[in-house]
Structure formats: C-alpha cells, structure tokens
Design goal:
Shape: elongated
Largest sheet: none
Number of helices: 24
Helix content: over 70%
Length: 554
C-alpha cells in the first residue's frame, strides 16, 4: 500500500462522507417540505399515550431522515404549548429508533457482491431524480425528484466509502493497529468524538458498517463505536441549547440522558458478557451469519429499541431531573424576545412557518390590547396602563423588525409553494399589525394633549368613541378567527363589520361638525376627535387586510 493509494483512499472517504451528508440533507429537506401538513397532524397525536409518542417520533424521523429535524419540531411544539415536556420525551425516544433506518438502508446497499450490487441499483435513483429535477415543472414532482436523487446519492456515497475501506483493509499494519483498540470505553469515546465532529450519527454508523464489512475492524469494535455515536449525536443539540430557550435546553438534556442511560446499560451488559466468555459480536454474528453489515445495523436498531423500553417507564423521572437541572427562573433580560420562534428552527422550515403564524397571532393580540388601552385613555384621560402600553409598543416594534428578518431568511430555505406563498404575505401582515400599534400610539398622544390642555371630549363624543372602538374590537375578533383558522365565514363577518365601521366613522364626522357649529365642543378637542376617528377607520382597514390573507393559509 503506497502513498498514492493511501491519499486516493482518504480523498475517496472524504468525498463519500460529503456526498452522504448532502444526500441526507437533500432527502430531509424535500421529505419535510412534501409532507409538512401531514407531519403537523401526526404530532398532534403525541398526547394519546407514550407508545403513540414513540411511534410518532420514529415515523417522523423515518419520513424526514433526520432525528435533529424531529428534535427541532419537538422543541417548537413544546414552546408553543402544544406538547408537554413528557410528550416531547417520548417523541425523542422514537426519533432515536427512526434514525436507525439509515443504517438498515446502508446494510441493504452492501448486499450482492457476486452479482450487481444493490448499492449500484439504488444509486441509479440519483440519475432518475436528477432527470426529474431538470424537467419537472410542478413543485411536488420536483420534491419527489429531490427525494429520489438524495436516496440514490446515499448509495453512491456508500460505494465510495466502502471502496476506500477495502483499500485500507489490504494493509496488514493498519489492521494490526486498529486491532489494538479493544477497550470498550475507548471505542465508545471514539464514537462520541467522531460523531460530534461530523455532527451526524448516520454518517459514523454508515462508515462503521463499511469498515466492519471490509474486515478493518471487528464487529464488536464496530458495536461499541456505534454505541458512542448515540451520545455524540447529542452534542450539537446541547451546544445549541446553551444559547436557546429553557425548553430547548431541557429537551436537549432529555435526549442526552436517554442515550447515556442506554450506553450505561449496554456497556455494563457487555462487560458482564466478556467475563462470561462471550460478547455482542458473537451473539449478533450467530443471529445473522455471513452478513456483517446486517449484524451491526440490527444491533443499532436493537440498542435503541431496548433503550426506549427501559426509558419509557422513567419518562416522568427524566422530566423531573431536567426540570431541576434547568429550573424555572424569571428572565434576566427585559429585552423583547420571540415567544415561539428560535434560530435553530430555520433547519425545520415546515415547523418554522407554523411558529411564525403563532408569533404573528400573538403580535395581533398585543396590538389590539394597545388599541383598547389607547381608546380608554382618550375617553377617561386615565393613564394608569400607559407603562403596559409602552412595553407593548416596544415589543410590537421588535416583532416587526425581527419577524421580517426571520421570514426573509426562511424564504431562502427549501419550501413548498404553499409555505412560500404564506410567508410572502406574512411580511405584509406583520406590517399591517405594526401600523395598528402606530395608530394606537397616535390615540394616546391625543389623550396626552387633552390632559396637558386640561380639556376633554364631551360626554356624547366619548360615547361615540367607545361605540367605534367596540365595533373595531368586534372586527378584530372576526379577522383573527379568519387568520388563525382560515374560516371563510369569519372573513365574511369581518367584511360586514368593516362596512359598519366605515359607515359609523363617516356619520361620527358629520355629527361632530354639527356640534362644532353649535359651539358644543372646543376647537382644540375637535382636532383631536377628528384625527382619532380617522385613525380608528384606518385600524379597521389594517384588520381587514389581516383577515384577507385567509386564501394563503395552509
């Protein structure tokens, strides 16, 4: 084995790892975009039972080919209040089972050494997918093409990695060197470090399978490296959790504790077996003879299945433990923050879109609260809630800038047409809501002017303002219903109330002119009244704009 062949093998291995990662990301993005609606419905069933939660986690991870994406979804649903931490834990247990499917696919691709290899057959899907991507016009068809291309690239990468390992396996010195790594703890550590560096347990498991098949390492060595990869895959989530929300940190810790529980159990059992003169390699070798790729893949699946069976009854203990480690504490910063959105959700666009909708809904409620406070201040000149109003206005300004920035970045992700259309309109919706906040601020300024001048609206004017504000609040209720649920009846109701607002504000302006002519109100108060009524009418216009986005909803 000369220097040239070593260099070629190393470069082939690096190329294979790169293609494998791209293939996984490609499959994940297209599967998630294609099935985002079904995935959301699927997650809603996690509350039924622990086993259902496990099944949902496994099915979702198989669908999107990424346990990390599943974890991101789980964090999003916990933050939104849709899923409890206990329910999230069961989904994470299932996600670990689902991620073993990649190892099974790799094992499948390594059969057929005496004829046409299955990796070559499945690798041909890359070409099929590429043709679809090149000529398909429909978004769904292109997503299918992306899935097929990613699936084929997975096996093309496998061929490159397998070939590289076969070259290394021809070196007697390399085999002798690797044979010295017999300590289970050291092998587990190798699995942890390699997975943390590559940030993909699927890649390390796949490389380990090809290494075992080539004879470079023993099955038992491969098993302990695979055990370590289950812990290494938690590192990325833990790092992200350090700068994320409390629920994100707790979720990442549950993932780590779950995997550490499995590692401790299997390491202990492995040491006991060694004392009895046997090991995992002997057991799985006997169960699946003459198929080392299947032996390791089946161990990986068995590891996660058994770990889940052990952890499931301990779910409550896990939740209690992480709650003590990351306790509920008041936020140290007073700076406005998102309630439902986190940066790492950019990795799961389908979830991010849903969370944006929740954030916008919360923003609309905040703007309406400020509108009500402003109207009350104008009528009563009572500024008891002005600090609450200012905090709300500060948050509205933050959300306007932060949401538009987040949406702009999300639009560069691989989205389906429905999500892309929604996000394009969501930017305008955010602006409409922010404008409501601005008009509410105008109304508080009118109230401040009246207080400073020591004048007030007449009793009749106050009653009229209260009537108009109540009508706008009714419009808001219908508009928000239309926005949240896509309810067309609510949209029709919103249009009807908006017409009432237009008619009322026109009538109020006429009545005020008559009062002014009769000398029943002061000129200073008159200017503020006319401006206030005009702002109320503009707020109604912005609310109806929010309701009209019903056609773009998912």
């Amino acid at each position: 084995m000369n220097a040239a062949s070593i260099a070629t093998s190393v470069l082939s291995l690096i190329t294979g790892i790169g293609i494998f990662l791209i293939a996984c990301n490609m499959m994940s993005a297209n599967l998630e975009a294609l099935g985002s609606r079904k995935l959301k419905k699927l997650f809603s069933g996690a509350a039924k039972s622990k086993l259902v939660g496990v099944g949902i986690g496994a099915a979702t991870t198989v669908a999107v080919q990424s346990s990390s994406a599943t974890t991101v979804m789980v964090i999003g649903f916990v933050n939104a209040g849709i899923m409890s931490l206990a329910q999230a834990a069961t989904v994470i247990f299932g996600a670990n089972i689902g991620t073993t499917v990649t190892g099974q696919l790799v094992a499948l691709g390594m059969f057929g050494s005496n004829s046409v290899s299955s990796s070559v057959i499945f690798g041909a899907f890359a070409g099929v997918g590429a043709f679809i991507l090149a000529f398909a016009k429909k978004d769904k068809v292109q997503k299918v093409g992306g899935i097929l291309a990613g699936f084929g690239m997975l096996f093309a990468a496998l061929s490159l990695m397998s070939g590289a390992m076969n070259v290394f396996a021809e070196s007697e010195s390399m085999r002798n060197f690797l044979a010295t790594f017999e300590n289970p703890f050291l092998l587990v550590l190798v699995g942890i470090v390699l997975t943390a560096l590559v940030q993909s347990s699927s890649v390390i498991t796949s490389i380990t399978i090809t290494t075992v098949v080539s004879g470079l390492i023993s099955l038992d060595q491969g098993i302990y490296i695979t055990i370590g990869s289950n812990v290494g895959t938690c590192v990325t989530a833990l790092i992200a959790g350090l700068t994320s929300t409390r629920n994100a940190r707790r979720t990442a810790l549950i993932h780590l504790i779950f995997n550490m529980t499995g590692v401790i159990v299997f390491l202990t059992a492995g040491l006991i077996m060694r004392l009895c003169g046997t090991d995992y390699g002997f057991i799985f070798g006997a169960m699946f003879p003459h198929a080392p790729q299947l032996q390791l893949a089946m161990f990986h699946t068995a590891f996660n299945l058994i770990a889940t069976m052990i952890a499931l009854p301990l779910t409550g203990c896990f939740v209690g433990l992480v709650t003590k480690i990351v306790p509920d504490k008041p936020e140290r910063t007073s700076a406005p923050q998102f309630k439902y959105i986190e940066e790492h959700m950019l990795a799961a666009p389908a979830v991010a879109v849903q969370q944006i909708k929740r954030e916008i809904t919360d923003m609309a409620l905040l703007a309406q609260d400020n509108f009500v406070i402003a109207c009350n201040a104008a009528c009563t000149l009572d500024f008891a809630e002005i600090e609450k109003f200012r905090d709300g206005e500060k948050r509205l300004n933050f959300l306007n800038a932060a949401l538009n920035s987040f949406i702009s970045r999300l639009l560069s992700s691989d989205l389906n047409q429905s999500d892309r259309a929604y996000l394009a309109i969501a930017i305008k919706t955010v602006t409409d809501i922010e404008r409501v906040g601005d008009y509410a601020e105008n109304i508080t300024e009118y109230a401040s002017y009246l207080r400073d001048k020591e004048i007030s609206f007449s009793e009749t004017a106050r009653q009229e303002i209260t009537e108009a504000c109540s009508l706008v609040s009714k419009l808001f209720s219908h508009a928000l219903d239309a926005y949240k649920s896509g309810n067309l009846d609510a949209l029709d109701a919103a249009y009807a109330v908006e017409n009432e607002v237009d008619e009322l504000t026109d009538e109020l302006a006429k009545r005020h002119v008559q009062r002014l002519q009769l000398g029943e109100c002061s000129p200073d108060a008159s200017v503020q009244y006319i401006s206030l009524v005009a702002d109320v009418e503009r707020i109604a216009d912005h609310y109806i704009n929010v309701a009209k986005t019903v056609g773009a909803h998912r």
